[in-house]
Design a protein that fits this description.
Elements lengths: L1 H7 L4 H17 L3 H9 L5 H12 L1 H19 L3 H10 L2 H15 L6 H16 L1 H8 L28 H11 L3 H141 L1
Helix pairs in contact: 2-3, 4-7, 4-8, 5-6, 5-8, 7-8, 8-9
Length: 323
């Protein structure tokens, strides 16, 4: 279950909800109702929070160094160790480097971070250095919004070379606490500061959501434009292919027409020859019939002549015998 949640919070924000619902459905199907409830309760992270989670999971050694650096820096701040602060402040440049790594990881995952979102990532990492609670939230790998460093922490606005006088936040508060009536005023100021911080955090979360939504819409528009461009190019290629096919079909049709016309001419010529041949056949049949008729007549005439010759010969012999 914990591994599933860890993986879920490194899922890009646009795919977070579908992935969450898929995992919850699997848990319900497997009879793990409590796991399904926990999954359904998981909040979609902002783009900056997701990038910070991705950095923690993808660069564990660098993340561990940042957490250790934060512990050392906070300890030096609490003990007002100016020499240690001077050394640690120089090392805090790692925040900028890690912010760049987070942006690179997000880019590799298909989501380029805007300058505003990168600033939120850097703010989150600065908060990890400055605040133990923020460090705990980030080390869980399940941030849902960017973190803001506490205003009382000196951040980059102090010079460690100036010694303890540079720690204006806590030192002035400590001095004020020593003055008569400073306790209640400090508590009131702390409550007001907490309320302002809560409002600022809520507003920052709202703005982050708006920025993420705008960035996602821009990304979708870019993808849609790219798909439209590819579709247009494909349509042009299809049109060219269709035109080539049409030209080939036209040529084939013309060739077929030419061959048909030639065949029709040949048929006409053969039909004329057939008619002539039939006429010749008819005349030959007539000539044959006439020849056969003449043959029969000649045969009959021959028979008669032979009979007449035979009779004449007989008559001659009779006359001769009487003499």
């Amino acid at each position: 279950m914990e591994a599933a949640l860890d993986a879920l919070y490194t899922t890009p924000p646009p795919a977070f909800v579908p992935r969450r619902e898929e995992l919850a459905a699997r848990a319900r199907t497997a009879g793990r109702a409590e796991d399904a409830r926990r999954l359904r309760a998981a909040r979609r992270p902002t783009l900056a929070a997701w990038a910070a989670n991705l950095l923690l999971r993808s660069r564990p050694e660098e993340a561990a160094k940042l957490l250790e650096l934060g512990r050392a820096l906070r300890e030096a701040y609490r003990t007002l160790d100016a020499a240690e602060l001077k050394s640690l402040t120089a090392r805090r440049r790692v925040v900028a480097a890690l912010s760049r790594q987070a942006a690179d990881l997000a880019d590799q995952a298909g989501h380029r971070l805007s300058d505003a979102v990168r600033q939120e990532v850097e703010s989150t990492l600065t908060a990890v250095l400055a605040d133990e609670e923020a460090a705990g939230h980030w080390s869980s790998g399940r941030l849902t919004t960017a973190l803001t460093p506490p205003s009382a922490f000196p951040g980059d606005g102090f010079s460690a070379g100036e010694g303890k006088g540079a720690l204006v936040g806590d030192e002035r508060a400590a001095r004020a606490g020593a003055e008569p009536g400073a306790g209640s005023a400090a508590r009131a100021g702390s409550e007001a500061e907490a309320e302002r911080a809560a409002r600022a955090e809520a507003e920052a979360e709202r703005k982050a959501r708006v920025r993420d939504e705008l960035a996602e819409r821009r990304r979708k528009r870019r993808k849609e434009a790219e798909r439209a461009r590819q579709a247009a190019e494909e349509a042009v290629r299809g049109l060219d292919a269709a035109r080539a096919e049409q030209a080939g079909a036209d040529a084939a049709r013309q060739d077929a027409r030419d061959r048909r016309e030639a065949a029709e001419r040949r048929v006409t010529e053969l039909e004329r020859e057939l008619r002539r041949a039939r006429e010749e056949l008819r005349r030959a049949d007539e000539d044959r019939d006439r020849a056969e008729h003449r043959h029969r007549d000649a045969a009959h005439a021959l028979d008669r002549a032979e009979r007449e010759a035979t009779e004449a010969d007989r008559a001659l012999r009779r006359l001769t015998s009487r003499r």
